[in-house]
Amino acid sequence: MLHRALGVATVGACLLFAGHAAAQQVYAAASMKNALDDVSAAYTKETGKTPVLVYGASSTLARQIEKGAPADVFISADQDWMDYAQKHDLIDTGTRHNLLGNALVLIAPAATTGNVDLTPGAADLDAKLGNGKLAMGDPAHVPAGLYGKAALEKLGLWPKVQGKVAAADNVRNALLLVARGEAPYGIVYKTDANAEKRVRIAGTFPADSHAPIVYPVAVTKQANRADADPFYRFLQTPAAQATFQRFGFTRP
């Protein structure tokens, strides 16, 4: 079931990347979907222009842009993949800006009860997982997975649970595994948990257990600036920021 769920989600992601040739394309971290959909709708209402929104793991998006995908604006869920884009001369560094912040949480299916102790040295998570899987973004490259692994290492839990990890290709697929009841616990952003009624927050990772979760945004080097710049600026308006905060994002 885990492999089937991830397989279907991966096919969907591949279809999402294909076939877009219009300007004003926004490549954004998967965890932004609900909030950015609303922000984009407000932008369309105000300007009459409809951005093409492409969601996925920040690592996948950065590599797609590197290979020539027609992105005009890139929003990463961490600094590392924006650093990657900058190192490979994919973005206009003068436009790089820290747009949003987030928190990291442990989720469980909504029908369950009880919280999980996420303090240093606690063995609660490992005991409650039992033979079940811990859904999280792939800790090798997905930002939510990298944050999650760092937090688990800081809490002394990684050696106990790493063999139980169900690695998803982006954070929304990890969320889906828990929402479907295919994994008893998962690690996602707080905004992901807020967006899915079939899960609940079973614990919040201490802020000092991982690097600050920051979403940087930048206009790409290949962008059609006449289309990209207005949307890039709109993301930073009080109206757009209020929408992001309504979905649980914070200021960086």
TrEMBL record:
Molybdate binds at S31, S58, A144, V171, Y189. The lineage of its organism: Bacteria, Pseudomonadati, Pseudomonadota, Betaproteobacteria, Burkholderiales. GO terms for molecular function: metal ion binding; molybdate ion binding; tungstate binding. NCBIfam families: modA (TIGR01256), PRK10677.1 (NF007958). One of its GO terms (cellular component) is outer membrane-bounded periplasmic space. Belongs to the bacterial solute-binding protein ModA family. Keywords: Metal-binding, Molybdenum, Signal. Gene3D superfamilies: Periplasmic binding protein-like II. It comes from Pandoraea cepalis. The keyword Signal applies. Residues 1-23 form the signal peptide. GO terms for biological process: molybdate ion transport. The complex is composed of two ATP-binding proteins (ModC), two transmembrane proteins (ModB) and a solute-binding protein (ModA). This is Molybdate ABC transporter substrate-binding protein. It holds the Pfam family SBP_bac_11.
